[in-house]
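FORM 7B: Structural annotation worksheet

SECTION A. Query
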Amino acid sequence: MDLEMACAMWQGGRDSGSTPIRGGARVLTGIPHYFDADFIRGVDGAARANGDTLDAAQLLLSTLASAPMETIEQIAARSGFAGRAVAARGIAAKDAAVDSQIAEALQLGRTVAMPLWGFSLDDAVATSYGTKFRFELIGEFVGLAAWVHSGAKAEEAEIIGGGCYRVEEVGTRGDTTVFSLRQTAIINLIR
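SECTION B. Predicted structure
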């Protein structure tokens, strides 16, 4: 598998692309999701049994482990993104128990580990994933512009990231809880 194929798989949609690959990354690193739910355990179990998913996760994790830490502006310039760049991801409301777990895991000063996750440089795309919660990266972080490598879906301006993030600020914008995250570490494979 090459990086073009791994990024194209990632961009195959939330349910058929990035979600299984994120599960594969959790399997490969041994790091659980930051909240617990039956559907997350199902994703991880399916990923564990899918060689292509694990291969894509391993390649993306390895690529990020050797990527430089950069600012939003540097990633936007390197990827050719035009416009005002953000590094954000909206999260839709889940059930009350999961929403509570998210709020608990992302309290001010806590660190959350996400071996792989996706966010967008485009604010409208970031918001389209949900408005219950919003993750915003600040400072330097590692990120891989999926569309640059796959040659597809440039309009999503999706960045694949991963690592450990400290919650620097928690606030609200309307009905959205906004978490400002600063990357503190890169996650390496244990396998």
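SECTION C. Observations
Strands lie at 88-91, 111-120, 133-138, 144-145, 158-173, 176-185. The helical segments are 3-10, 14-29, 38-48, 51-65, 72-79, 96-105, 123-128, 146-150.

SECTION D. Sign-off
Analyst initials: ____
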